[in-house]
Every structure is written in structure tokens, then in C-alpha cells.
């Protein structure tokens, strides 16, 4: 669809579908260029709607071969067909059968939406609106049907034939070289969950017995020869199935559960009913090819897609405005799963880091939108950090507000009440309002109002009255289309520490004992008084990041250092050190811009030293404590008039100072953490490796000769990919021949493994040096790169635009010029990936004037050029708007 066609869709205009489809019988004859699709639909008018004059079916770039109604060809004057729409002009009043034949070319489908070829396989992607690229259909999530699919293909071209549901039949087609398979999915589903796969694939098989004793066959399909790399994914799948039974009481509901890994995929993975299709990055792992981060990513994406079986598939979304109904909830569920499987505080810190570096910038710029938007032009652009990650935060707040028991009851009620339906956020929240008997209407503002609330906390201690008074106030910033905001419901978990760092019992003047330690701010301003406080305590607030806010507290540096050592809430221990570090960094940036040398508070170096000394801490947690805030986080803290060079310089200088300040201890600890024995991907050993990698980063921050040697030795002595990448990443920041040699060595070792080469591309794209852009351009010409594969594009171009702030935001504007040129070219091939790259400009207005002008010029140049896809046009308009 081109930009001029894209009219905004509005939630307020929602109407139930005019026609319902009870059953869909699909016959798909797979062919690399001429795939034929025969679709038989059982159609009836929706009794909830007045019978409309015509039946309109969605299409996208479709070629219609024939259409029949109740077995008879439809005369030309009884229908209208374009590539985008099929209209049946006067459909019968009673139910009827529509038979539609279309033809498509999977090999020419570079958008990777609908049916396409990836490597040796045919596969599909139908969310959000891809089914209409396969056949004409009312392609909206509230039309749910029972599907039966007959696939045929050349036996050699596609020995494996898969679709949703259970396999009913398979066999040969006599006197041809073709074979067939019939799959039936008994669960009514929306078209976006439809999937078929055909190809030459290997299978890793296993099985799972559900809590009621049913046996489910599990299969993971991968490129030939790679089944050995799917064992971790299989293990994660079985653990997810157990967890969902135990924690949410959810059992799997088909006889088979299949996963297919493909190498060309626009996103991470897709939860098609009984047939998940995955970007192979989130399936394939071996100690030699995958890092600990890859293993953790596989575990969480496998869990996420599996959990969708209930939150998304059994209960789906009424319309795409409700996307967070399935996504926010499922992210919450996968986060909880990983917390239970690994370390809860470390997972929380990682999730908050993700939220702050992706969602917060989105929420404070031109692309800000509510978790449930009320209008969109291109739904593909709404698979955002706001809908996913902020959506998950809302669920977490709900649980904090009503308590774990009522939350579990509310979930049970939701599953009971809405099973088999396409529903809304209102219906979901009503379940929790019903079980808790609380009025959650104000809470709904979290779905409706965009922007990160700023919450100010001021404390007053009265020694005589033995009270601590908290003055809490909130402000929700203006966002596009929402100039004024109402106060939100903000649950703030908090604690008071005595001078020895112990938690004091909390008694609130009005509410009695605050046993769960949560105060709720639901007005613009509110006061809370804690009584019986015999000495001035230290306040720890927003513990566990109980609300996704920006907290502005009148807390001294001394108190932050104290919290960093003593807070019983590990999240806030980490948070305290981050906060004080950010304060220092902001001062450094000012100093650097004024031409002065930044001076770091020596207490900060000591705080890092004591984090390192504390042997009682989990390794992974210590690694988080010793990791400085990212450039994005520091940029956000400063807020305006950003000079990315100064931001980078401040961080580098602090890293060097810490590295020098703790060198002796760090080196000793670094050595003591060396892995012995075979690689295991579990949380404990991953934690050890991550602490060792963070220490390596600090020890090599000086970028001297010794640093290069240490990093190169780390690289060369590695026995697994995690250590190899830590060594390469550290060395990549140290210019010199050693670096170039190691880069060559890496390529020679892994050149046949595209997923590993992505790491090589992405590390080089992020080198913060003058010639980074030339290097990226050079790498684009290498056979390791291809503009047609989304993983390659993200690894090279995405890492440059999103992970190399000084070079993307070069003062001369050449970084911007480069990116818009790539987007211009990519837009014709794969608009979704092009639009995603364009979001690298989302914070352009916060830049200092020179860069701002250059970014604007580049964006305007893109807007003025050729025919833009609706995906790119939408992001462009909003970014410039
Ligand atoms: N529902 C998937 C995400 C997804 C969305 C769109 C896609 O194609 C454009 C693919 C996947 C999930 O949440 O995992
Ligand atoms: Zn999802």
C-alpha cells in the first residue's frame, strides 16, 4: 500500500464485522513462483449487524483467478475485484459458500508478509495483515474461524508440510512427484494466527505430558544439519509448558506443538496456533556459536510465543487497538518466567534497562503513543516498546495494586469468562475490578495517556513528632495529540532504612500498617505521614521499579551511597548507584562542553570498589552494579540540547577513571572468574562470565597497549562464543593492528555462520571512531551482508544508527544522510524493516541546534523523495510532526 492510500483508522469507529466466517478450507499448491490458493469459506451475515448490501474482503497485491458462490461462478456484474479488495455485490441473506482462487509468487515476496520463501522453505507471516496477501478474506482479528488446510508440494522441494492444528492425513499424489498433507485446527482463530510451512527441514523431536495426562508431540524444524542446535530451545519450551501449568493453570490444547526456525523474518517470532514460526536467531544455539545473551533471548522468546497460546490465541484481540491485551500481558508472563528460572532482581534490572533505553525515549519524543492507541495509519508500526514493555509494566502495577492473590483470581476469571473470544482491554480490566471490588477506571488512564509520568518525592523529618512526611506529586508530560493529562494511579513500593541499613516497620498515619509497603499516588499531589520513626531514616522509594515513572527525589548523594550498600531491595541498591552515577555524568558533560576536565567524586569510585569487594553478591548482580548507564540513558537524563560527543566522552572518562581506580582488585577478580570445565548456559555460570566481561571492559577502558593485550588474550583463549564476543567487543574499542587481526580471525572462523557473522557486523558498526561510516559502507559490500535479510540489516545498519551515537549523529550530518539513503532503497523491498530503521531519528529534537538542523534536513529529503510505503510515510510524518 502506498502512503496516499493510508487513511487513519480510529478506535471510535469500531463496528463488529458485517459477515462472519465459520469455516475456512484452504487448498494450497506450493510452487516457487506460481502458488495456487483455493479458499472455501462458509459465510453468514453477523446477526449483531444489519445485513449490509455487499460483502467486502481484504486483499493485498492479489491476483484473482476465479470466484464461485454456492458452487456457481459469479458473473462479472456480481462482484468487483482489485488487488486490494474483492467485493461480492449482493450476497445471499442466508449463509452461503464462497470459493476463491488466487495465485501468488512466494519468491518475489520481499516484504516477508504473507507467503514467502526463506532459504529452503516456504513460510508465512500473517500478523497483522498478511493473510490478505494469500487470499481475499475479512482480515481482522474478530473474525474467528475453524481452518482445514490441504497443502500439496513437490516431494523434493518440500518434503515437510506443516500447518496449524493437528495432522489429519498425508500421502502421495499418484502419478505425480507431488505429495500432500491435511491439517485441521479445531480452535476457531483469527486469520493473523494462520500459518503454513513447507520445505526441506530437519526435525528435533520430543514430547510433553500435560497436567491432565495428555501427550503432546513437540517438533522443532530447522535448516538441514542444524537440529543439534535446537536442544536448548526445546528445553526452554518444555520448561515454559510446565511453568504455565504451575503458575497460571494453563494447559496446552492440541496434540502437536511445532516450531519452525527461518532465517528471513521481520521480527523475533510469531505465535501462530500450534505452529510458531521463529527468526532462527531465537532458536539456534550452541556454546560455540551463541552467547549467554542469545541463550537468555531464546528462553524468553520461546516462552513468550508459547504463552501466547492462552494470552493471544485462546483469547485474542477484538481489533488492533487492543494489541497490548495480548502483548503487554504476554511480555509480563515471559518476564515472570525468566525471573523464576533465573535471578529475579537481575531480570528486573535488565527489564528496566530495556524499558529506559527503548520505551522512555519513545515516550518522550514525536513517536509517543498510548499503550492502547486510539488511532493509527499503519498497524505494523505499533509493535513498539510502549505496547510491549510499558504494556507489561501496567500488568505488573495492577498486581502490585490489588495483590498477588486477587491478581491470580482475576486472571482465572479472565480465562474463564473470555475463552474463545476476541476482546478488549476494558473486558480484561473488568475481571480485576470484579474480583478486587476496586474501581479501576482511573487506572485505565495508563492505557490511554502517553508519556512517562514524573513523580516528585520530598521528605520532611520531624524529630519531635517522630514522623516522616512524604510529599508526592506527579506530572504527566504533554505528548503528540495529548496536550493535557489527568493524574494517574501510581503505586510506589517503599521502605525506610535505619542508620544500620535495616528496614524499619512502616506505620502510616491514616492507613495503619503499610504491610505491603506500597503507597498509592492517585492525585496530582498527596501527602503521606509515617509515624513512630525515632531517628531520621533513609527513604527507598519505587522499590523494584513498582511504577514506570521518572522519579525525582530530594535525596542526597550520601543517602544514595548508603542505599547502594544497604537497601534490602536489590533493584533499588542498583538504582541508587545508577542515580548517583548519572548525577556525576551530567556534571561531566557540562564540564566537557565548557572545555574543562571532568572531576569525579572519589566516593563514586569507592562505591564501585565496594560493589566489587562484596563477595556475597550474585555475580550477575555485581555485573549490573558495575555497568555504567548507557548513552541513551544519559541523554535522556540531560533531556535537551544534546551533544552526543560530550555524552560519549563523559562516559568514557568515567569508565577509565573507575578502571584505573579499581585496577588491582578488578584484575584479581577477573582472573579468579575464569571458566573451568565445559560451558553450561545456566544463569549462575552466565553470571560469572558477565561479571568477568564487565571487569574486562573496565580494565581495558584506558585503550592502551596492555589493554589491547588483555582483550586479545581474552578473545584467543575463549572456549565459547560468550567469552569470544566479550574479548572482541573490548578489543573493538582499541584502535590498532591487533583489533584488525582479531576481526579477520573471527571472520575466518565463522564466515559460514550468518548468525555469528551478525555479531561481527554489529560490533564493527558500533565502533565510535571517525571512520565508522566508511567501515559500514565497506562491510555492506561484503558477501556477509545483504539488504534482503532483516537480521543482516539490523546487525549492520541498525547497530550503526542505534548503537553508535557519536558516528550516527556526526556533526557533519553524513550519518543521517547515509541512513536516509538506505531507507530509501530498502523501502521498496521491505517497508517494515525500513520503517523500523527510521525510528533511529525519534529523539532528533533533543539534539543541539546544528545536528538538529541536519537531522531535519535529512528527514525532509526522505519525505520529498519518491513513492514512500505507508510504513515509512507514517513514521516520517509523525517524526517530523
Ligand atoms: N506477535 C509477535 C510479534 C510479531 C508481530 C508482527 C510480525 O510480523 C510483522 C511478526 C511477529 C510476538 O509478539 O511475538
Ligand atoms: Zn507477543
From TrEMBL:
Keywords (A to Z) from UniProt: Aminopeptidase, Hydrolase, Metal-binding, Metalloprotease, Protease, Zinc
Transmembrane domains' residue ranges: none
Cofactor: Zn(2+)
Keyword Iron-sulfur (UniProt): no
Keyword Electron transport: no
InterPro entries for this protein: Aminopeptidase_N-like_N (IPR045357), Aminopeptidase_N-like_N_sf (IPR042097), PepN_Ig-like_sf (IPR038438), Peptidase_M1 (IPR001930), Peptidase_M1_dom (IPR014782), Peptidase_M1_pepN (IPR012779), Peptidase_M1_pepN_C (IPR024601), Peptidase_M1_pepN_C_sf (IPR037144)
Domain Peptidase M1 membrane alanine aminopeptidase: 232-444
Every Peptidase M1 alanyl aminopeptidase Ig-like fold domain range: 451-552
Domain Aminopeptidase N-like N-terminal stretches: 29-193
Annotated Pfam families: DUF3458, DUF3458_C, Peptidase_M1, Peptidase_M1_N
Domain of life, source organism: Bacteria
NCBIfam families on file: pepN_proteo
Family, per entry: Belongs to the peptidase M1 family.
Protein name: Aminopeptidase N
Organism: Agaricicola taiwanensis
Amino acid at each position: 500500500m502506498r502512503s496516499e492510500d493510508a487513511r487513519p483508522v480510529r478506535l471510535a469507529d469500531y463496528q463488529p464485522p458485517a459477515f462472519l466466517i465459520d469455516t475456512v478450507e484452504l487448498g494450497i499448491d506450493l510452487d516457487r513462483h506460481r502458488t495456487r490458493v483455493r479458499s472455501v469459506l462458509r459465510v453468514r451475515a453477523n446477526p449483531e449487524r444489519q445485513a449490509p448490501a455487499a460483502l467486502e474482503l481484504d486483499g493485498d497485491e492479489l491476483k484473482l483467478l476465479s470466484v464461485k458462490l454456492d458452487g456457481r461462478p459469479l458473473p462479472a456484474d456480481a462482484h468487483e475485484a482489485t488487488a486490494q479488495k474483492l467485493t461480492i455485490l449482493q450476497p445471499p441473506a442466508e449463509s452461503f459458500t464462497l470459493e476463491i482462487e488466487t495465485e501468488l509468487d512466494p519468491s518475489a515476496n520481499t516484504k516477508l508478509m504473507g507467503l514467502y520463501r526463506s532459504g529452503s522453505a516456504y513460510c508465512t507471516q500473517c500478523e497483522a495483515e498478511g493473510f490478505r496477501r494469500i487470499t481475499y478474506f475479512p482480515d481482522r482479528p474478530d473474525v474467528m474461524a475453524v481452518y482445514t488446510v490441504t497443502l500439496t508440494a513437490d516431494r523434493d522441494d518440500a518434503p515437510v508440510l506443516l500447518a496449524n492444528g493437528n495432522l489429519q492425513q498425508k500421502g502421495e499424489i499418484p502419478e505425480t512427484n507431488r505429495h500432500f498433507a491435511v491439517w485441521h485446527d479445531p480452535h476457531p482463530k483469527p486469520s493473523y494466527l494462520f500459518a503454513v510451512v513447507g520445505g526441506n527441514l530437519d526435525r528435533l523431536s520430543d514430547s510433553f505430558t500435560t497436567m491432565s495426562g495428555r501427550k503432546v508431540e513437540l517438533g522443532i524444524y530447522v535448516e538441514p544439519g542444524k537440529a543439534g542446535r535446537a536442544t536448548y530451545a526445546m528445553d526452554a519450551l518444555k520448561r515454559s509448558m510446565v511453568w504455565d501449568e504451575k503458575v497460571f493453570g494453563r494447559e496446552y490444547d492440541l496434540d502437536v506443538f511445532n516450531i519452525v526456525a527461518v532465517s528471513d523474518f521481520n521480527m523475533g517470532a510469531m505465535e501462530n496456533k500450534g505452529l510458531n514460526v521463529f527468526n532462527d536467531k531465537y532458536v539456534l544455539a550452541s556454546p560455540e556459536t551463541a552467547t549467554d545473551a542469545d541463550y537468555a533471548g531464546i528462553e524468553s522468546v520461546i516462552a513468550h510465543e508459547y504463552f501466547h497460546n492462552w494470552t493471544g490465541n485462546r483469547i485474542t484481540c477484538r481489533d488492533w487497538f487492543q494489541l497490548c491485551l495480548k502483548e503487554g500481558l504476554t511480555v509480563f508472563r515471559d518476564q515472570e518466567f525468566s525471573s523464576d528460572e533465573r535471578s529475579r532482581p537481575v531480570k528486573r534490572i535488565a527489564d528496566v534497562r530495556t524499558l529506559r533505553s527503548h520505551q522512555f525515549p519513545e515516550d518522550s519524543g514525536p513517536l509517543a503513543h498510548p499503550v492502547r492507541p486510539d488511532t493509527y495509519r499503519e498497524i505494523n508500526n505499533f509493535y513498539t516498546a510502549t505496547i510491549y514493555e510499558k504494556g507489561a509494566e501496567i500488568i505488573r502495577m495492577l498486581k502490585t495494586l490489588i495483590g498477588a492473590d486477587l491478581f491470580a483470581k482475576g486472571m482465572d476469571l479472565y480465562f474463564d469468562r473470555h475463552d474463545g473470544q476476541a476482546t478488549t482491554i476494558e473486558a480484561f480490566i473488568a475481571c480485576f475490578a470484579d474480583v478486587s471490588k476496586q474501581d479501576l477506571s482511573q487506572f485505565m488512564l495508563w492505557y490511554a495517556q502517553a508519556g512517562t509520568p514524573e513523580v516528585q518525592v520530598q521528605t520532611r523529618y520531624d524529630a519531635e513528632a517522630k514522623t516522616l512526611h512524604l510529599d508526592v506529586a506527579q506530572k504527566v508530560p504533554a505528548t503528540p495529540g495529548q496536550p493535557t493529562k489527568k493524574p494517574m494511579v501510581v503505586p510506589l513500593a517503599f521502605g525506610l532504612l535505619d542508620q544500620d541499613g535495616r528496614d524499619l516497620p512502616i506505620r502510616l498515619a491514616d492507613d495503619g500498617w503499610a504491610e505491603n509497603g506500597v503507597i498509592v499516588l492517585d492525585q496530582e499531589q498527596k501527602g503521606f505521614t509515617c509515624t513512630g520513626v525515632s531517628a531520621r531514616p533513609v527513604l527507598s522509594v519505587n522499590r523494584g521499579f513498582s511504577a514506570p515513572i521518572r522519579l525525582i527525589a530530594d535525596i542526597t548523594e550520601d543517602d544514595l551511597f548508603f542505599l547502594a550498600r544497604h537497601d534490602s531491595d536489590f533493584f533499588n541498591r542498583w538504582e541508587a548507584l545508577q542515580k548517583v552515577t548519572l548525577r556525576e555524568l551530567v556534571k561531566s558533560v557540562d564540564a566537557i562542553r565548557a572545555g574543562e576536565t571532568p572531576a569525579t567524586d572519589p566516593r563514586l569510585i569507592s562505591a564501585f570498589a565496594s560493589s566489587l569487594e562484596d563477595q556475597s553478591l550474585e555475580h550477575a548482580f555485581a555485573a549490573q552494579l558495575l555497568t555504567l548507564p548507557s548513552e541513551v540513558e544519559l541523554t535522556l537524563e540531560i533531556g535537551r540540547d544534546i551533544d552526543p560527543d560530550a555524552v560519549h566522552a563523559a562516559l568514557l572518562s568515567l569508565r577509565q577513571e573507575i578502571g584505573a581506580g579499581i585496577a588491582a582488585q578488578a584484575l584479581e577478580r577477573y582472573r579468579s572468574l575464569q571458566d573451568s570445565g565445559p560451558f553450561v548456559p545456566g544463569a549462575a555460570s552466565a553470571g560469572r562470565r558477565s561479571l568477568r566481561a564487565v571487569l574486562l571492559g573496565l580494565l581495558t577502558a584506558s585503550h592502551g597497549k596492555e589493554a589491547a593485550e588483555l582483550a586479545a588474550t581474552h578473545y584467543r583463549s575463549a572456549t565459547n562464543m560468550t567469552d569470544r564476543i566479550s574479548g572482541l567487543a573490548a578489543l573493538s574499542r582499541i584502535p590498532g593492528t591487533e583489533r584488525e587481526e582479531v576481526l579477520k580471525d573471527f571472520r575466518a572462523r565463522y564466515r559460514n555462520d550468518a548468525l555469528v557473522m551478525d555479531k561481527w557486523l554489529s560490533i564493527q558498526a558500533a565502533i565510535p571512531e571517525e571512520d565508522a561510516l566508511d567501515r559500514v559502507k565497506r562491510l555492506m559490500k561484503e558477501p556477509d551482508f545483504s539488504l534482503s535479510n532483516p537480521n543482516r540489516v539490523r546487525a549492520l545498519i541498525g547497530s550503526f544508527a542505534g548503537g553508535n551515537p557519536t558516528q550516527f549523529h556526526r556533526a557533519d550530518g553524513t550519518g543521517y544522510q547515509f541512513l536516509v539513503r538506505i531507507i530509501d532503497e530498502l523501502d521498496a523491498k521491505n517497508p517494515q524493516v525500513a520503517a523500523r530503521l527510521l525510528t533511529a531519528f525519534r529523539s532528533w529534537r533533543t539534539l543541539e541546534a546544528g545536528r538538529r538542523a541536519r537531522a531535519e534536513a535529512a528527514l525532509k529529503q526522505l519525505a520529498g523523495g519518491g513513492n514512500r510505503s505507508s510504513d515509512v510515510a507514517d513514521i516520517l510524518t509523525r517524526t517530523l510532526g
